[in-house]
Write a structure and sequence with these properties.
Number of domains: 1
Shape: globular
Order of helices and strands: HHHHHHHHHH
Strand content: under 5%
Number of helices: 10
Number of strands: 0
Mean pLDDT: 93
Structural class: mainly alpha
Distance between the termini: 55 Å
Radius of gyration: 17 Å
Largest sheet: none
Length: 203
Amino acid sequence: MADLHAGAALLLAVAGLGYLIGSVPFGVVITKLMGLGDLRQIGSGNIGATNVLRTGNKAAAATTLVLDGAKGAIAVVLARLVLGSETAAIVAGGAAFFGHLYPVWLKFRGGKGVATFLGTLIALHWLLGLAACGVWLITAAVWRISSLSALVAAAASVPLAWLLSDQKLMPICALMAVLIFWRHRANIARITAGTEPKIGKKG
Protein backbone atom coordinates (compact mmCIF):
# COMPACT_ATOMS: atom_id res chain seq x y z
CA MET A 1 0.00 0.00 0.00
CA ALA A 2 2.88 2.36 0.81
CA ASP A 3 4.40 1.72 -2.62
CA LEU A 4 1.05 2.43 -4.22
CA HIS A 5 0.73 5.75 -2.39
CA ALA A 6 4.32 6.67 -3.25
CA GLY A 7 3.69 5.88 -6.90
CA ALA A 8 0.51 7.93 -6.97
CA ALA A 9 2.27 10.86 -5.27
CA LEU A 10 5.10 10.65 -7.79
CA LEU A 11 2.70 10.69 -10.74
CA LEU A 12 0.90 13.66 -9.17
CA ALA A 13 4.22 15.50 -8.90
CA VAL A 14 5.00 14.64 -12.54
CA ALA A 15 1.58 15.94 -13.59
CA GLY A 16 2.17 19.17 -11.68
CA LEU A 17 5.54 19.78 -13.29
CA GLY A 18 4.18 18.93 -16.73
CA TYR A 19 1.29 21.34 -16.19
CA LEU A 20 3.64 24.19 -15.23
CA ILE A 21 5.81 23.56 -18.29
CA GLY A 22 2.74 23.55 -20.52
CA SER A 23 1.42 26.72 -18.93
CA VAL A 24 4.24 28.92 -20.24
CA PRO A 25 2.48 31.20 -22.82
CA PHE A 26 5.24 31.46 -25.40
CA GLY A 27 3.03 33.20 -27.98
CA VAL A 28 2.26 36.04 -25.57
CA VAL A 29 5.88 36.32 -24.44
CA ILE A 30 7.33 36.31 -27.97
CA THR A 31 4.91 38.88 -29.41
CA LYS A 32 5.59 41.22 -26.49
CA LEU A 33 9.36 40.82 -26.77
CA MET A 34 9.21 41.51 -30.52
CA GLY A 35 7.02 44.58 -30.05
CA LEU A 36 4.01 43.08 -31.82
CA GLY A 37 1.52 43.98 -29.09
CA ASP A 38 -0.68 41.89 -26.82
CA LEU A 39 -1.49 38.70 -28.71
CA ARG A 40 -4.76 38.36 -26.80
CA GLN A 41 -5.95 41.57 -28.49
CA ILE A 42 -4.96 40.44 -32.01
CA GLY A 43 -7.00 38.36 -34.44
CA SER A 44 -8.81 35.57 -32.65
CA GLY A 45 -7.12 36.38 -29.34
CA ASN A 46 -5.70 32.87 -29.21
CA ILE A 47 -2.15 32.49 -27.86
CA GLY A 48 -0.97 29.92 -30.44
CA ALA A 49 1.19 30.12 -33.56
CA THR A 50 -1.73 30.51 -36.00
CA ASN A 51 -2.80 33.73 -34.33
CA VAL A 52 0.80 34.94 -34.04
CA LEU A 53 0.99 34.54 -37.83
CA ARG A 54 -1.85 37.06 -38.11
CA THR A 55 0.59 39.72 -36.88
CA GLY A 56 2.38 39.26 -40.20
CA ASN A 57 5.58 38.13 -38.49
CA LYS A 58 6.42 34.66 -39.75
CA ALA A 59 9.51 34.32 -37.55
CA ALA A 60 7.45 34.96 -34.42
CA ALA A 61 4.86 32.43 -35.54
CA ALA A 62 7.50 29.78 -36.31
CA THR A 63 9.21 30.34 -32.96
CA THR A 64 5.91 30.05 -31.13
CA LEU A 65 5.06 26.86 -33.01
CA VAL A 66 8.37 25.23 -32.11
CA LEU A 67 8.31 26.29 -28.46
CA ASP A 68 4.68 25.29 -27.93
CA GLY A 69 5.44 21.90 -29.42
CA ALA A 70 8.57 21.61 -27.30
CA LYS A 71 6.56 22.06 -24.09
CA GLY A 72 4.87 18.70 -24.47
CA ALA A 73 8.04 17.01 -25.74
CA ILE A 74 10.18 18.32 -22.87
CA ALA A 75 7.66 17.16 -20.27
CA VAL A 76 7.59 13.67 -21.79
CA VAL A 77 11.37 13.36 -22.12
CA LEU A 78 12.05 14.62 -18.60
CA ALA A 79 9.59 12.16 -17.07
CA ARG A 80 11.03 9.32 -19.13
CA LEU A 81 14.65 10.15 -18.29
CA VAL A 82 14.12 10.75 -14.58
CA LEU A 83 11.64 7.99 -13.80
CA GLY A 84 12.16 5.54 -16.65
CA SER A 85 8.41 5.09 -16.90
CA GLU A 86 6.21 5.36 -19.96
CA THR A 87 3.19 5.87 -17.71
CA ALA A 88 4.91 8.89 -16.16
CA ALA A 89 5.82 10.14 -19.64
CA ILE A 90 2.18 9.92 -20.76
CA VAL A 91 0.99 11.69 -17.61
CA ALA A 92 3.59 14.45 -18.04
CA GLY A 93 2.74 15.00 -21.70
CA GLY A 94 -0.99 15.06 -21.04
CA ALA A 95 -0.51 17.52 -18.18
CA ALA A 96 1.63 19.81 -20.36
CA PHE A 97 -1.09 19.76 -23.01
CA PHE A 98 -3.70 20.63 -20.38
CA GLY A 99 -1.44 23.39 -19.07
CA HIS A 100 -1.33 25.00 -22.50
CA LEU A 101 -5.12 24.94 -22.71
CA TYR A 102 -5.65 26.28 -19.19
CA PRO A 103 -2.48 28.11 -18.05
CA VAL A 104 -2.38 29.37 -14.50
CA TRP A 105 -0.38 32.44 -15.64
CA LEU A 106 -3.24 33.65 -17.89
CA LYS A 107 -6.14 32.96 -15.53
CA PHE A 108 -6.67 29.57 -17.23
CA ARG A 109 -7.38 31.18 -20.63
CA GLY A 110 -4.96 29.45 -22.95
CA GLY A 111 -4.55 28.18 -26.47
CA LYS A 112 -6.10 25.38 -28.42
CA GLY A 113 -3.26 22.95 -27.90
CA VAL A 114 -2.44 21.80 -31.43
CA ALA A 115 1.33 22.35 -31.40
CA THR A 116 1.64 20.97 -27.86
CA PHE A 117 -0.48 17.98 -28.89
CA LEU A 118 1.81 17.22 -31.83
CA GLY A 119 4.98 17.77 -29.80
CA THR A 120 3.70 15.44 -27.11
CA LEU A 121 2.89 12.73 -29.64
CA ILE A 122 6.30 12.99 -31.30
CA ALA A 123 8.03 12.54 -27.94
CA LEU A 124 5.77 9.67 -26.88
CA HIS A 125 6.02 7.77 -30.17
CA TRP A 126 7.90 9.49 -32.98
CA LEU A 127 6.21 7.61 -35.81
CA LEU A 128 2.74 8.34 -34.44
CA GLY A 129 3.64 12.00 -33.97
CA LEU A 130 5.03 12.35 -37.48
CA ALA A 131 1.97 10.63 -38.92
CA ALA A 132 -0.31 13.11 -37.13
CA CYS A 133 1.84 15.98 -38.42
CA GLY A 134 1.51 14.53 -41.90
CA VAL A 135 -2.28 14.46 -41.61
CA TRP A 136 -2.20 18.11 -40.49
CA LEU A 137 0.03 19.14 -43.40
CA ILE A 138 -2.02 17.31 -46.04
CA THR A 139 -5.28 18.77 -44.75
CA ALA A 140 -3.75 22.26 -44.59
CA ALA A 141 -2.39 21.96 -48.12
CA VAL A 142 -5.79 20.99 -49.50
CA TRP A 143 -8.14 23.29 -47.56
CA ARG A 144 -5.80 26.01 -46.15
CA ILE A 145 -7.69 26.07 -42.84
CA SER A 146 -5.56 25.59 -39.72
CA SER A 147 -8.43 24.67 -37.42
CA LEU A 148 -9.76 22.02 -39.80
CA SER A 149 -6.27 20.55 -40.10
CA ALA A 150 -6.04 20.37 -36.31
CA LEU A 151 -9.40 18.66 -35.98
CA VAL A 152 -8.60 16.07 -38.63
CA ALA A 153 -5.16 15.36 -37.15
CA ALA A 154 -6.59 15.04 -33.63
CA ALA A 155 -9.34 12.67 -34.77
CA ALA A 156 -6.87 10.63 -36.82
CA SER A 157 -4.47 10.22 -33.90
CA VAL A 158 -6.67 7.61 -32.22
CA PRO A 159 -6.79 5.11 -35.11
CA LEU A 160 -3.15 5.94 -35.90
CA ALA A 161 -2.22 5.03 -32.31
CA TRP A 162 -3.98 1.71 -32.79
CA LEU A 163 -2.11 1.07 -36.05
CA LEU A 164 1.36 2.36 -35.18
CA SER A 165 1.83 1.96 -31.42
CA ASP A 166 1.18 -0.69 -28.80
CA GLN A 167 -2.29 0.84 -28.28
CA LYS A 168 -1.39 2.16 -24.82
CA LEU A 169 -1.42 5.64 -26.31
CA MET A 170 -5.00 5.44 -27.55
CA PRO A 171 -6.57 6.79 -24.31
CA ILE A 172 -4.34 9.88 -24.13
CA CYS A 173 -4.83 10.50 -27.86
CA ALA A 174 -8.60 10.26 -27.41
CA LEU A 175 -8.55 12.59 -24.41
CA MET A 176 -6.45 15.21 -26.19
CA ALA A 177 -8.62 14.92 -29.30
CA VAL A 178 -11.78 15.53 -27.28
CA LEU A 179 -10.23 18.62 -25.68
CA ILE A 180 -9.04 19.91 -29.05
CA PHE A 181 -12.56 19.56 -30.46
CA TRP A 182 -13.97 21.33 -27.39
CA ARG A 183 -11.49 24.19 -27.72
CA HIS A 184 -12.29 24.48 -31.42
CA ARG A 185 -16.07 24.55 -31.05
CA ALA A 186 -16.30 28.16 -32.33
CA ASN A 187 -14.06 27.21 -35.25
CA ILE A 188 -16.29 24.25 -36.04
CA ALA A 189 -19.28 26.60 -36.24
CA ARG A 190 -17.37 28.90 -38.62
CA ILE A 191 -16.17 25.99 -40.74
CA THR A 192 -19.77 24.83 -41.08
CA ALA A 193 -20.83 28.37 -42.02
CA GLY A 194 -17.96 28.75 -44.47
CA THR A 195 -16.51 31.78 -42.65
CA GLU A 196 -13.38 30.30 -41.07
CA PRO A 197 -10.31 32.33 -42.16
CA LYS A 198 -7.57 30.78 -44.23
CA ILE A 199 -4.02 30.18 -43.01
CA GLY A 200 -1.97 33.39 -43.02
CA LYS A 201 -4.91 35.77 -43.14
CA LYS A 202 -4.41 38.73 -40.83
CA GLY A 203 -7.00 39.24 -38.08
